[in-house]
Amino acid sequence: MIPASTFRGQRVALFGLGGSGLATAKSLVAGGAELTAWDDNPAQVEAASKAGIPVGDLRDMDWASVGTLVLAPGVPLTHPKPHWTVDLATSHGVEIIGDIEIFVRERRAQAPGSRFIAITGTNGKSTTTALIAHLISHSGRDAQLGGNIGTAVLTLAPPAAERVHVVECSSYQIDLAPSLDPSAGLLLNLTPDHLDRHGSMQHYADVKTRLVARSDVAIVGVDDEWCRAIAEKLESRAFKVIRISKDHVLEEGLFAQGSMIRQGKAGMLHDLADLAGIATLRGAHNAQNAAAAIAACQAVGLNEEEIRNGLAAFPGLKHRMQPVARRGRVVFVNDSKATNAEAAAPALQSFEPIYWIAGGLPKEGGIAALERFFPRIAKAYLIGEAAAGFAATIGAHAPFEISGTLDNAVASAARDAAGDAAGMPAVLLSPACASFDQYRNFEVRGDAYVSLVSGLDDIEMLVDIENTGEHHG
């Protein structure tokens, strides 16, 4: 745990007592803050109280005495409208921050020279975060992995000269971290997402930009217009910018060319790593993730041999294009983390023929953007609230059935794939939807898929079904 010592003796209000919120409350108590915590869910308030957290309805507080309001990342700051605690804090001139900001202040106080890598982007950030932490750990260094990837940042070991903190940051967390200042900040890409929480694409992009705008080194993907503009703006202000791309040759920066990650520098091209044969880094999207991870690791002192050795040993990220089982020629793939169409595209591009399980709580735009991949789909199995809408989109291009639930979809897809004599059929869960209509989060959905697959006859599991894993937007 990282005790929030920079808040010692200060009056702090905290709202949101889920996983990261409870961890933050414990950190504040350990650091000596005068804390009052609350949540709209009575069960979470009771659990926090039993854990020794001082609780009380924040409506009853003397806000004139409060110095800071700490919000859990899932609590609305601006859109669709500010949470009632935000209104109270704003009306009394109280600063509003989150757990990442507390970490930033502790790092500044305890080990200001320690290395801190922060990663954001619409898609690919969890794989990139996990890959960076793996490369650092594989080299024998102390990598602390946390943030939006599922481990609350304040539960990690404290900042220290010998440690590297590798932290995935959602837009919600960045919005609550005004002094975020990593050694290396990564912005991978930007596509429309979470606009209900940010109001517009411009505001969403502005929030994401904050992560790289105060970084010692800004590593920016330049394969979309938003990020290209951000890279140019930062460079015009004399920031150190390293561009990455999966689509373009870069005279300056890291880029993918086939399976090779290459670096353009001073008019010369240099081969850094070959991803051929690394199954966990399959697909063009993973080439971008690898390029970003390599740039970050170079920034904190890893050499090329350490990076290449680490890449070859990368075990992959759970719920992201994760091969979980085989039955004959059929591979079963868990891509539950693909919660929008853009995130589902890499898996659809990487397998053929595909028996595609898709659906859930639909995101804006549905799956129309995936039409170029529909010829690769042998059949679609549609679940959740999105089923009817997805059927209308895919119906003219590929066979489908309305399966309704995941168990029905797995059974049907496994049966149909077993009879396919072409290529290497893949039963692919890549929902292109949020999970919340049927599952608490995408991890629970992915674990349910793995469990259902494990119950099929003659199945060879490639993962440990006992080792199954909270994550927000």
Task: Explain this structure.
The chain is α/β, with parallel strands linked by helices and 473 residues long. It has helices at residues 19-30, 42-50, 84-91, 99-110, 125-138, 171-175, 195-198, 201-213, 225-236, 284-299, 304-312, 341-350, 387-394, 406-418, 442-454, and strands at 11-15, 34-38, 68-71, 95-97, 115-120, 142-147, 163-168, 184-187, 217-221, 241-245, 253-257, 260-265, 268-274, 322-327, 330-334, 354-359, 361-362, 377-383, 400-404, 426-429, 433-434, 460-461. It contains 15 helices and 22 strands. A hairpin with a 2-residue loop joins strand 12 (260-265) and strand 13. It starts with 10 loop residues before the first strand and ends in a 12-residue tail after the last strand. The model is unreliable at 467-473 (pLDDT under 50). One of its GO terms (cellular component) is cytoplasm. Cell wall formation. Catalyzes the addition of glutamate to the nucleotide precursor UDP-N-acetylmuramoyl-L-alanine (UMA). Residues 119-297 form the Mur ligase central domain.
